Amino acid sequence: ARRLGLVSSASTVEGALAKVERVLPQDVRARIAAVQQTATFDPVRGLSLPTTETVMSVAAAVNDQRRVVFEYASAQGEETERAVDLYGLVHLMGRWYAPGYCHLRHDLRLFRLDRIRQITAQDVTFQRPPHFEPLGFVQDALAVAPNAWHVEALLFTTLEEARREIPAYDAALEPIEEGVIFRANVECLDGAARYLVRLGFRFEVRQPTELRVVLQELAADLLKAAGLGSEAGSPQLAGVAG
């Protein structure tokens, strides 16, 4: 909890934790000490973190199934007031997310906790959908989040093999007779090209056309690094760029 920023440095909080640790059985205390001394976290640098109060308020709202109102800043910086029934709290890839029903948009939405301000619990309660899966919703939402480019490619492999290599939050996968359709929204086509190549599957780009150009340039650079020269590049690209 300390490593993820859920425990503030206030002396009252640390004092309470110290009291809890003192009354633990010796063997349990030793195990906790071992975890604290040996566990290594790999924090994602450059990410803004939500306040401890925001995380705690969201967790309480989810647990109590109580509607909240907060100010929310979009990726473009637009701020709106939202009344939301929050269905879950998810920590994924260094960020905190909360999916729920937004009464402003009248639909399910995904909220990043670091963009939430001035959250207040209301007296209104709600019933969470019985089969709602917060992690699955977050992964699916991130896979199709709006970015600069929509990428679609045909992977010549099975759905099972594709899922072993591609996290659910990276792309949406659809099995078809020829293989698996890969769909993702990305900010950078160069990164998308390297991602597809790194998967190790033979593939064919369906869109955008610009991605095929980026792949051709990447292939030319690789051939040059291998000492084969750029003139040998064209025949090698037929099965990759489509």
Proportion in helices: 25-40%
The beta-strand count equals 10
Compute the number of helices: 9
Major β-sheet, in short? 6 strands, antiparallel
Query: Which term fits the overall shape?
Result: globular
User: What is the strand content?
Assistant: 25-35%
3D architecture notes:
- With about 240 residues, the protein is an alpha+beta fold.
- Helix content is about 40%, strand content about 25%.
- The strands form 2 sheets. Strands 1, 2, 3, 4, 5 and 6 form a 6-stranded antiparallel beta sheet that branches.
- The longest helix is centred in the C-terminal third of the chain and has 17 residues, at about 210-225.
- The chain is globular.
- Mean pLDDT is about 85; it is low at about 230-240.
Structure in a nutshell:
With 242 residues, the chain is of the alpha+beta class. The chain contains nine helices and ten strands. It is globular.
Helix and strand topology:
Elements: H1 11-22, H2 26-38, H3 52-64, E1 66-73, E2 79-86, E3 90-92, E4 95-102, E5 107-112, E6 116-125, H4 134-143, E7 149-155, H5 159-165, E8 172-175, E9 180-186, H6 189-199, E10 203-207, H7 209-225, H8 233-236, H9 238-241
Antiparallel strand pairs: 1-2, 1-6, 2-4, 3-4, 4-5, 7-9, 7-10, 8-9
Distinctive features:
9 helices; 4-stranded antiparallel β-sheet; alpha+beta; 242 residues; single chain
